[in-house]
Amino acid sequence: MTLTSRAFQQGGTIPMKYTCDGDNISPPFAWSGVPEGTRSFVLLCDDPSAPSGIFHHWAAYDIPWDWRRLAEGHGPESLADYLGEFRDILASHRLEDMVCVRRVVFDMDSNWKCFVENYSDGYHIPHVHRDSLSRWKSVSTRVTPSNENYTASFSAHEGSQLLLPFPDYVGFPAMPEIDEKWKTGTFFTTLRPGMMMTLGNDGALVFRSEPLSATQSRLTVSSLFPKSTVARNDFEEIVQNYYRRNAIVVGEDVAVSLRQHAGIESPYARMALLCRTERSLNQIANWILDRVIGPQA
Ligand SMILES: [Fe+2]
């Protein structure tokens, strides 16, 4: 594994800011070359040349296996800061009591942002899912986020949008513990940079879009249900209706991501410009996202 910091070089001096004479915060770190099967990380900050022997400055542990960096001054508690009120909004769905029963991976010839942008856009359900999800008669309300790290909108409707509104899509009952106001619909949420969650009153779908390169991405779709639902005798039989729905709906998502990427690469594609420098600004922003932040995010 390789551990680096953009604050100082290998063998160099750690800036004063990161000492008790400065702001006394931890430096930013990034790491790569993670072994297969890694479950979590521990980061130790020791000084082996201290006069009294090895001096243990600090340690960070239980860093999730899929993290590849720690921001400056970033301790384990700052994930809660990052999420803000997002956790409170979804608290009654009790994700902690759910289990992942199925995970499907799609490797796509499209930039990882295509799926994220599609999922977030208002045109998504009416157009991308015009023959499937848009058949639900629903009224959407956007939740005002407490920070810029997430978006959430609630779609009120009958039944469950983790299924399709056709007679042979039998589902599970609504989770009893869910807030009454959230019982009659679905949350569509985006957690930046590349995670999206669809939370029904009966379970959840979690999407993760990550870059493999500037033109290739990996979409992972996980199906979650409450433990009490998974314990039902008829679980395996009924859950097939949810998988059937996913094959159709996620198939539409994948197809539109590929079409969108093809459009970006088309010689006829022209970006709409709001100012003369917008194209170069977009290119710089995308270059950074794909090649600098992307592989480490
Ligand atoms: Fe979709």
Report on the architecture of this protein.
- The structure is a single chain.
- With 297 residues, the chain is an alpha+beta fold.
- It folds into two domains: 2-76, Phosphatidylethanolamine-binding Protein, CATH 3.90.280; 86-265, Naphthalene 1,2-dioxygenase Alpha Subunit, Chain A, domain 1.
- It is 25% helix and 28% strand.
- It is built from seven helices and twelve strands.
- It has helices at 78-83, 86-89, 112-120, 124-128, 227-230, 235-265, 278-293, and strands at residues 2-4, 29-32, 40-47, 55-64, 69-70, 98-108, 139-143, 150-156, 185-191, 195-199, 204-213, 216-226.
- A seven-stranded antiparallel beta sheet has the order 6-12-11-10-9-8-7. A three-stranded antiparallel beta sheet has the order 1-2-5, with no helix packed on it.
- Strand 11 and strand 12 (216-226) form a beta hairpin.
- Bound molecules: fe (ii) ion.
List strands and helices in order, with pairings:
Layout: E1 2-4, E2 29-32, E3 40-47, E4 55-64, E5 69-70, H1 78-83, H2 86-89, E6 98-108, H3 112-120, H4 124-128, E7 139-143, E8 150-156, E9 185-191, E10 195-199, E11 204-213, E12 216-226, H5 227-230, H6 235-265, H7 278-293
Antiparallel strand pairs: 1-2, 2-5, 3-4, 6-12, 7-8, 8-9, 9-10, 10-11, 11-12
Fe (ii) ion is lined by residues 119, 124, 128-129, 253.
